[in-house]
Structures are given as structure tokens and as C-alpha cells.
Amino acid sequence: MPIKKELLDILACPACRGKIVHDDEKDTLNCCECKRSYPIRDDIPVMLIEEATMPDNLDKP
Amino acid sequence: MITSHSIKQTYNRFSSLYDLIFKPYLDFGRERAIKQLAPKSGARVLEIGVGTGLSLEYYPSNVEVLGFDYSYGMLKKSKIKARNLSHCPVNLMQMDAQNLAFADNSFDYLLGAYVLTVIPDPDKAVRELFRVARPGAKVVIMNYIRSRNKLMGLIEDIFHPVFASIGLFTLNHDLPGLLKQHGAQDIRIEPTSLLNLHFIVSFTVPA
User: Computed over its alpha carbons, how large is the radius of gyration of chain B?
Assistant: First the structure.
């Protein structure tokens, strides 16, 4: 789902308050700071720290 | 003990029954709460704990609502109401009121209906609410407030552990006191339900 830019602008990582960007390829919402990746399920962004994943090359939070 | 996990489990299991049981009781006052919030045309309203979307039909068509809930089961119900009953655009997200996924100073209007009583750490949730609200933002919270009537207070104290143990909600909060601690201004409290158990609390975030 394309997330509207105005919504992306006010989103922040719930773990570190970093800026959030949309990964168009994976359709996830990613934190630019801590690199956590938040899933989107049925068009609903899941902005829960416990549901976030870290990239493979980094340790799990 | 009410925990995030117990809340998520209970409300996910409960989402289909929630409207049936609570709509007649908790629907009451939502329209009035939104009228009190009085969001101006073009405003974005943050609804904290949007639940099954019982408030969505009462927002005017000239605003946009961003609603979040901790329970995915409840959000799925909200999604249907957003499509079928709402007059304004609605965006839904899954979020924890204790760790909001918003930048500071993001909202001018915030509404929370029967939500603060189901959050394990209401103090943290109120702090987060003040963080994402812009200075001067208007907030309306519908909530249970512990009865000042001695008998009702006693009955509530007896039932509180029962409700809390099934993860449904907790009752023992001094909401106005908590809001004052965080610097809420122009606090107004008015009863909504017949037994004077539920109140609409409105206030302004300090400028």
C-alpha cells in the first residue's frame, strides 16, 4: 500500500524516534536510525517494537 | 495483573463480541465527545485506541482520522467501519499507546475513548500523548473515573481485580490528577453514562 507522504512525515520509530521511510520493494516501514523494519499487514502498518525485525547483519534488538 | 500481552490476547479474542456487548453502553457520548473536540476543517485527528471503530461514524466529513489500536483483531473491525460508516478519510495503524510511533508535536486534536483504563502504564501513555500533541492541542478523553460515591467506590474496588485478572480493564486510576501532573490546562469533566461512571474529560495541552 502506498503510504501517504504526510503520514510518513509524522511517523517516528517507536523504539528510537528515528525517521521512518517506506521500503517500496518489501512494503515495510523502516527506521533510518536503528534499522528496525516494521511490517504492513492488510494495509495496516504494525508499528510495534516487538513485531519489528532487524536486518540479518545486525543483532536482534 | 494487566499486561500488554493479556490485553492483546483478550481483545483479539473478544473483537467480534465487543460491539455487541459494549456498543449500547459505550457508544453513548462518543458523538458528544467529538462535538466537544470540534476539529476544524482539514484537521487530522489522532484517535488513541480506535478499537472496533465505534467513533468513526461521528467524525465530520471535513477532517481526517488517524486511528491506532494495540489489538489487530479490533483494527480489522475498524477497517470495515472505516469503509462502510465513516464520512471522512480514515488511516489505521497498530501501535502501543506507551510507545507512540509519531514525531513530537504532530497533532492538534486527539481523542481517546475508554482506553486509558486498559493501558498497563497510564502515566507513560499520558506522557506520550503530550509529546505527540502540538502545544495548544485539544484533547478529549472518555473514561471511567472512580466513583466519589462511597458505596459505588466500594463495589468498584471489589470488582476491579476480577476485570483486571481477565485483562479487560483496570479501574483504579485518578485520571484528572494524572492529567494535572502533566500540566493539562482548562480541564473540563462531564458525566456521560446513566450511572455517572463514565466521563468526557477535555483539556488543552500547554502552549
Answer: 16
- Provide the CATH number for the domain around residue B163: 3.40.50.150
**Cell numbers found for residue A44:** 495496516
Which residues in chain B touch residue A11, judged by CB atoms under 8 angstroms apart? 101-103
Dump pLDDT digits (tens) for B22-72. Answer: 666 666 688 899 999 999 999 999 999 999 999 999 999 999 999 999 999
**Predicted model pTM:** 0.84
Cα–Cα distance between B139 and B45 in angstroms, integer? 10
Residue type, B48: I
* Phi, psi angles (nearest 5°) of residue B30: -65, -40
Set of cell numbers at residue B44 = 487530522
* Contact state of A12 with B95 under an 8 Å Cβ cutoff: no
ipTM summary value: 0.91
Q: CB distance B95–A14 less than 8 Å?
A: yes
Q: Give how far B206 is from chain A: nearest CA, Å.
A: 20
B40, with CB counted inside 10 A (0-12, 13-18, 19+), is exposed
* Contact check, Cβ <8 Å, A48/B95: yes
How many domains does one find in chain B? 1
Which residue ranges form the domains of chain A, and what is each CATH number? Answer: 5-58 (2.20.25.10)
To 10 degrees, the CA torsion angle through A27, B105, B128, B188? Answer: -130
For A19, B95, B179, B205, the CA distances from B101, given in Å and listed in that order, are 10, 7, 21, 19
Closest CA to B140 of B63, B35, B61: B35
B58 vs B32: CA distance, rounded Å: 9
Q: Which domain holds residue B46?
A: 4-204
